[in-house]
Amino acid sequence: LTYDAVRVRSVVDAAAEVVSPLLNQKPAIKFVKIVTQSVPNVIVGDKTKIKQILVNLLSNAIKFTKSGSI
Question: So what's the pLDDT on residue 62?
Fold first, then answer.
C-alpha cells in the first residue's frame, strides 16, 4: 500500500464529478457538497481508495434516494 498526502477537498470534488451523471438522471435530488472547517485540508492515506469509498457512498445515496438532498 502507498500512503500519500491527500487533499480532502480535491478528492471530494473528484468523487462528486464521477457521480454527477447519476445525479443528472434524478432531478428530484439536490446534491450539496459541504466540507466543514473541522475536516483537515490534508490527510495521509491512499487517494484512490478514499475516492473509491466516497464514490460508493455517494452512488448508494443517489440510488436509494427518491427526492430530497444528499
Answer: 97
